[in-house]
Amino acid sequence: MTSRVAKIVELALMQRKTDSGIIDYQKESSTSTSEVILSTESINVSRLQSELPSTSGTAKMFSGASNNDSESERDPFESSSESYVPSDSELSLDEDQIMEEPLEQHREELAQQNNKTKKRKQGNKFLWKRSIVKRNRLSGKKYINRSGKTVEEKKPLPVNCTKCRYKCEKNITEELRIIICREYWEMGDYDKQKLHLSSLVTDVPIKRRKQQVEQSRRKTSRIFYLKNFEGLRIRVCLNFFCKTFNISHRVIETCMKNVGNTHTYTGFDKRKGKRPHNVTKEQDVLLVKEHIDSFPRVESHYCRRDSTKQYLSSDLNLSQMYRLYIGFCENRNVTKVSKFVYQKIFHKYDPALDFFIPKKDQCFKCNAYNTAKDKEPLKEEFDSHKKREKDAMRMKSEDKERAAREKGQTFRAATFDLQAILSVPFAGDNQIFYKLKLNVYNFTIFDASDATEASEIVAQKVEDIWKSASIPIVSHQRIVALTKEYQKKRKDLLKPYLKRKDAVSYKSKLDVFKKDSLRLFDIAACKCDNFNSCLCLKQNKVPIKERPFLQDQRSCRQMIIGSVDFEAVRQQQKREMRSKCDKENNIIDDAKASTSSYNRQVDGLEVEIEPGFNNIDGNEVTQHEKKKEQSAVISDEQTILQPTKRNTRNLSELAKTLDRYAVSDRAGAAIASAVLQDYGIVNNEDTQNIIDRHKVRRARQKNRTDLQRFSKSIVLLGLYFDGRKDKTLTFDDNRKRTIVEEHISLIQEPDSKYLGHVSPISGTAANILDAFNIFFQISSISLDSLEVIGCDGTNTNVGSKGGIISLLEKTIGRPLQWFICQLHANELPLRHLLQHLDGETTGPRAFRGHIGTLLHNCEKLPIVEFSRIESELPDITSDFKLSTDQNYLHQICSSIINGSCSEALSKRDPGKLVHSRWLTTANRILRLYVSTENPTQNLVSLATFIIKVYAPMWFLIKTKSSCIYGAQHIFKYIELCHYLPEDLKNVVFKVINRNGFFGHPENILLSMLWDERKHIRHLAYCRILKYRTVSDGKLNIRSFAVPDFNFKAKNYYELVDCQTILWTEPPITARLTDAQLKEIVEDPEKSEISYIKKYPCHTQAVERAVKMVTEASVTVCGYERRDGLIRNQLASRSIMPSFESKKYFISNL
C-alpha cells in the first residue's frame, strides 16, 4: 500500500511538469503524522486514475465519480465537467476489500464523529442592535426607532418666553440651556434622569382658588427650577423647562407620580436583583452532578500534558446519559430536570468532560517491547527501530526546512501516513487496529512558503493580463487582499458543508459566494456600469476604445485579447509626441535680441536652460526643421534663441517653515515671491525666480519624503508611547471627510526623538501591539536592542496579563524596564481626593459637587483675604522652561504660601477645565480658594493638599526628571502625605500603591545603583547578585505587579520588604557582568550604562508628539502626509526653536 501511495504522489507531482524534488518517507515511527508539503495547485484526479494500477483499493481511493459516491459530497465550488480534487473526508481506501455497505452511510457516520460540536459562542448583549438603540435613546443621540423613523439628537428646542413672568430667557442663557440639556442626556440612565428631574420639580399646596363653575380636584401647584453656573436654582415656566430638556409634559407627569413623601423619585425598577422564579434548584444541580460522577473516567494518551480534562467511555453520549438519568430519578422518586438543563450542567462541569474517541494507533514494535517480560532478545531490534525513527524525523525536518527556504521553486517534500478516521471497535496494537477500522489516506496539501506568496503570484499574472488590455486597474496590494479574502471565505464555507449542505440559508450563501467569485478578478479601477456618467478620477477612467471589451468581460465574455495593435500604438505615440511639442512651444516667450542670457547665474541662483526655437518674425518653424536645429549648433543669423528657464533652487528651509506655521502652498508662494520682488530679484524683465505654489508643494513633498527616509533603520533602546482619539481628515469619494481615529504616537528615548505614529483598528492592547509590529517592520526598526518601555498607567498599557507592555515582552521573549509616567501618577491622588470630598464627575468638564460646580467661572471672582498655607516649592531656575499652565500653578502656589495674590495674577486664565488635564483643575481650585471669604472645610483640604503635596511633587518631578529618581519620588510623595487625617490618608495611599510603578523592586534597585551613598550602591549590587544566584543567571519574563508598600518606611529602599518579596534584577542591567556592576558601585558616572540617567520618569515628550499628531490630523489627509508634516515641523524647530529677533536666526545659520 505504501508503494501505491508513493506512486500516486509521484504521478500527482509529474502532472505539474516541474523540476521539483520528491522525497518519499517510508518511516517506522511510534507517532502518526499526516502531512504533505506540495503546491497549492490542483491535482487532476481523473488523469491519475488512468495511470494508476487497477487495484480495488486504489480505484476506491480516487473514484470521485463512483456510483456509490454522492455528488453532494463534491466541492460545491467545482463543476462536474472540470477536474475534481477530493477532500480529506472523500479519499477512502480499504486495505483488504471494498466495503459492501453504501458509502453514503459511512460518510454520515464519519461526519458525525469528525464534526464535533463547537463551543457555543457567548452572546454579547452590549453589541446587540436593540441595546445600541436603547443606549442612544437614553443618551439623547440620533437613532432609528422600530418604525424605521430617524429620531434626531436631543438638543434644546427654541422657545419664546418674552411674555413669561419668570423672565426665563433672561435668567437662563442659551449656552447654559445647551449645557443643562447635554448633562441630562449624558447620564444615559432612566432612573438617574428621573431622579434628576424630581430634584428640579416641586409640588406645593395651592394657595388660592379662583371661583369656577366646576370645582377643580387639583390640590397642588407644580414649580419648576433650573440651575445656573453657580449652582443656584432659578424658577422657570413649564414650557421653558420641557423645551430645555427636550422632553414632553408626559415625562414630568410620569416622574412626579413616583415621587414619595421624601420628595425623591422612588419609581425604580423593582425587578433588579431578584432571583428568577424558574431557576434550577441547588439540590437538583447536585443530583445531576452526582449522576455524572457515577460514570467511570477513561484515560486518554494523547491530550495535553497539563490538561485537567477528563474523558468518559466512547460508547456514551449525552442522550444515553440523560435516559439513564431519568431512571436514576425514578428510582429515587425525585423530580428530573430537562434535557437542556442536564446538558448545560454537563458542559459547565468542573473539571471539563468529554467523550473519549481514539484518534491514533500505537506502534506494534514499541508495544511488543514494552509489554515483554524478557526484553533482552528484543533490545537490539528495538534500538535499531528507534534509530530509524529518529533518522526519518531528522530527514523530514531537514527537507521541510529546505522546501520552505527555497519557497517550493526547485524542491518540494511529501510525507504521508495512514490515519484512522471512522471510529469502530478499538484495539491499540496497529496490526489489529487497522483490521477493525475503515482506513483512508488523509493528505494535507499546502505550500511550504508563506500563503501570501501564492496570492502574489496570482495577482501578478492577473495584472499582466489586464495591463495588456490597456485598462486602468487597482493596486497590487488590493488584488492580493482580494485573493486572500476569497480563500478565507471559501474555507469558512467548506467547514460546515456536511452538516449544512441542505439548509436553505447555507445554499443561499453558496450562491452568493459563487456569484461574487465570478467578479473576483474584475480589478478594473473603474467599477461604473454606465461609463457616460462615470465620476472616477481621470487616471482611473476606462479608455473609450476599451469600454466595449470591459463590458463584454462583465457579461457574456465572448471577446478575447488579440495581438498588439501596432497602428493604435503608433497613433498613441504620435499624440504623446505632439502633446510634448505643444508644451514646449507654449513655454517659449517672445524672441529677444540677444542670447546673452542662455547660461547665466543670478545672485548664486543656478538656472537650467532648455532651448526652444521660434522664427524672429514670430512664425513657427516646421517640425522637421525644429528637430534638426535641436540637434545641431545654431548658426543661422535669422534665428534667435529664447531659453526656457527653470528654477532649481532647493527650498527645503522654506518648506519646513511653512509647515511649521501652517501656511498654505498658495500663501507661502505669494509671500516668498513678494519678498524676492522687494529685494529686486524679481521684476518685469526677470521673472525666472518667481516661486509658484506648485514649486512650494514639490519642495514640501520632497522634504517630507527625505525626512521619512532618513528616520528608518535606527537602533531603538527606549520606546515611549501615548495616544488619543483625534478628528482625522480623510479623502473618500472625491471629497474630504472628518472621522474619529485612534492615533498612538511613538518616540525614541533617550533624546526624545519622534519615531512616528500608528492608527490601530481599535484601542485594545492586541490591536495596538499589531500596529506597533507593522510599523517597526515597515520602518526597518529592530527590537533586538530595546530595553526600556514608557507610557502612562492606564490598564490597557500596564495590565499584568493582557497589557501592551506584557504582550510586547512575550513577543520579543524577554522582560523590559518599565518607566510609567510619574506626572500622570501624581494627578491621580488629587483626582480621587476631589471625588471623595466633592462627588463624582458628571461629564468631560463637569462635577456633581458644590466645589466642582463653582470651578467653571472661578477666574471671574474677585480676590479676597485668605489664610496662607505653609509649604515649600522646589527651586525653579530661570533657564528652566515651564508651560503657561505650569507657570500659573507655580505663581499662585507662591502667592498662597506668601499670603497675598497680585492683581495681574487674578486676571490671568487658569486654564480650561478638562478631566484629562488635572493641572488646570488644581489651578482653578486654588483660584477659587483665594476668592472665597469663608471656604468650606473640603475646599481648604483640597487647597492644602495641592500646596503641600501636588504642586511640590509636580515641580520636583519636572526638575529631577531622570528615571534614577523615580523611587525617591514615590517615597517623597508618601512622606508629604503624612499630615493628612486617617480617612483621607487611606484614600491617597491606596491610589499611590496602585500606581507606584517606580516602587517596584527593579526600579528601586536602579535608584540604589545611582544613590549618592556608596554603601547603598553596594547593597543594590549584593541584591542583584543574590537574584542572579537564585535564577542561575537567567532573566525570565515576570508578571510586573506593584507590591504592597511599607508606608512607615524611613527611606525609599525600605518601601518593599526584601525578605518576603523576591527582588528581580532590573532588565537594563541584565547584560552586564558582575565586574561591570562592581564598576558602577565605585563610580556610576563612568560606567557603561551612565546614559540611563537620560531616560525620563515622565512622558511629557510623548504628549508633545500627541499634540502634533492631533493638529496634523485635521490639516492633511493620509498617514504619509501627516507623518511628513510632523517631521518637517520638528526639523524646523530643532534648527530654530524660536525667532524673536535677528540673533535667533543668525545663531542657527
Automatic annotation (TrEMBL):
Residues 42-69 have a biased composition (Polar residues). Residues 42-91, 377-404 are annotated as: Disordered. Residues 78-90 have a biased composition (Low complexity). This is Uncharacterized protein. It comes from Diabrotica balteata (Banded cucumber beetle).
